[in-house]
Amino acid sequence: MSNGAATRVRRSREKILAAAEQVFLHSGFLGANMDAIAETASVSKQTVYARFQSKEALFLEVIAAMTGGAARAIGEHTEDALDDSPVRDYLTAVALDQLSIVMTPRLMQLRRMVIGEAERFPELGRSLYENGPLVSIRRIARALGHYISIGQIRECDPHLAATQFNWMVMGAPTNAAMLLGDSGIPSQSELHAHALEAVRIFLSAYGVPST
Amino acid sequence: MSNGAATRVRRSREKILAAAEQVFLHSGFLGANMDAIAETASVSKQTVYARFQSKEALFLEVIAAMTGGAARAIGEHTEDALDDSPVRDYLTAVALDQLSIVMTPRLMQLRRMVIGEAERFPELGRSLYENGPLVSIRRIARALGHYISIGQIRECDPHLAATQFNWMVMGAPTNAAMLLGDSGIPSQSELHAHALEAVRIFLSAYGVPST
DNA sequence: ATCAAACTGGACTGTCCAGTCTAATCAATA
DNA sequence: TATTGATTAGACTGGACAGTCCAGTTTGAT
Fold first, then answer.
1. What is the DSSP letter of A119?
2. Angle at A24 between CA A23 and CA A27, to 5 degrees
3. Which of the nucleotides lies closest to A9 (Cα–C1')?
4. How far is CA A156 from CA A199, B153, B171, B187, in A?
5. In angstroms, what separates the C-alpha of A167 from chain B's closest C-alpha?
6. For the whole prediction, is pTM greater than 0.90?
7. Could A28 and B27 be called an inter-chain contact, meaning their C-beta atoms sit closer than 8 Å?
8. Chain B, 123-182: which have a CB under 8 Å from a chain A CB?
9. By CB neighbour count within 10 A (0-12 exposed, 13-18 middle, 19+ buried), where does A154 fall?
10. What is the rounded distance in angstroms from the CA atom of residue A85 to the CA atom of residue B154?
């Protein structure tokens, strides 16, 4: 095999990323300490700097990896397959999926940190917005377009309606989690009830009476 | 007069608080620099430490003052006086008021900072939550209770309904502003349209058909 | 004019930390 | 076994910064 060294490099790289994620999420960018990251990764500081140019570069990679991971997770679920089920079922499934994927301590910590660093690293906020909420909204808008065309949803701007729906579902839990910490994340059953209620409200405004 | 010195003390105190607000909002707790605060306040560092025990104490006072100020601003408006106007008018007024008070760069920066420091200073997040959203929700819940009793709103849990309404109004703009920075704050006309639509949706779900 | 409290500028201390350097060790290949 | 590249421990540099100290000045009241 000609990959002995390469494997070692990849492994230490991953250990460092995992450690950095943990430390950064807990302490923020300025509060994090490169010695602590190296120690958490069980790696020498030198190795950290062999893999990553600087604290800032490491930080950006950690955030990019987490943001990308979350986007992929959202993308995998609910892959439009439900197009021929009733609107109510589709919306309910989307709402539950999103809540269960996003409302985790890890992603809420990521979000808190990105918001906190929005002044220093504005591109992170934009990236998280575009890879998170915006992706979901676009997907929902596409589905709503379909449901409008088959008469299960009133005529309306699908993107606006999708935006409304998205934040009806995500707004309350997200904001509570932002300000109250992980203990502000609602329980599974609360989230479930909240999702059903959001769908009910949305359909009573945008649904077609007949159905 | 026996207040010469006292006046001076109060004035320098206010200059320091104003400067600290500016610097902290821009750089966060760790990123802020006490020398910069003193210089911005046109005051010597010594004076800063004569008024405030430490960086942390100053930070906490700044946040407390801003949080309290915002809470007061929300409290002053919409002082329940609208109890005998139609629900639609009341909800519209509340929504517009809240958006215009809260969706300002200054309060959005405060919110970003509190979220970013949620790990270090959890009590700030709780305080902002209780003095902000929770106050509004309670007020709306009280009003909804009234409207339920006079038959303009369906039977329901007023607190839950108020929570839904609050986040339908505030969720989308707030979250955009958190991740996208001040440029993510919607324009006045967008906010206006958004408020009207939120009221429409809410009433189609919770309103009484007759009216 | 005198006094006391507030204030100033700036030097100073101690600490923390990003990033570098060195000399030695370890692991895989050939 | 010899070579090569990855890794390690830990010392070190330089800069930033919270908080203190001091010696002198300003301010307002008596």
1. T
2. 85
3. D6
4. 17, 25, 21, 22
5. 6
6. yes
7. no
8. 125-126, 128-129, 133, 160, 163-164, 166-168, 170-172, 174-176, 178-181
9. middle
10. 30
Instruction: Name the DSSP class of B71.
Output: H
CB < 7 A contacts with chain C (nucleic strand): A 1-5, 8, 32-35, 45-46, 49, 54-56; B 5, 8-9, 11-12, 42-47, 50-51
Task: Quote the mean pLDDT of chain B.
Answer: 94
Which residue pairs from A53-56 have beta carbons closer than 8 angstroms and sit at least 24 positions apart in sequence?
A55/A29, A56/A29
At B148, list the tokens. Answer: 């339920």
Domains and CATH numbers, chain B: 1-52 (1.10.10.60), 55-206 (1.10.357.10)
The answer to whether the beta carbons of residues A165 and A140 sit under 8 Å apart is: yes
Q: Give pLDDT tens digits along chain A (211 positions).
A: 446 667 888 999 999 999 999 999 999 999 999 999 999 999 999 999 999 999 999 999 999 999 999 888 888 776 665 667 899 999 999 999 999 999 999 999 999 999 999 999 999 999 999 999 999 999 999 999 999 999 999 999 999 999 999 999 999 999 999 999 999 999 999 999 999 999 999 999 999 986 4
Q: Which tens digits make up the pLDDT trace of B119-157?
A: 999 999 999 999 999 999 999 999 999 999 999 999 999
Helix, strand, coil percent values for chain B (each to nearest 5): 80, 0, 20
Tens digit of pLDDT for each residue in B10-22? 999 999 999 999 9
Euclidean distance between CA atoms A137 and A162, whole angstroms? 6
Cα A171 from Cα B158, distance rounded (Å): 18
**Bridge partners for A153 per DSSP:** A207
Token couple for B168: 């339908």
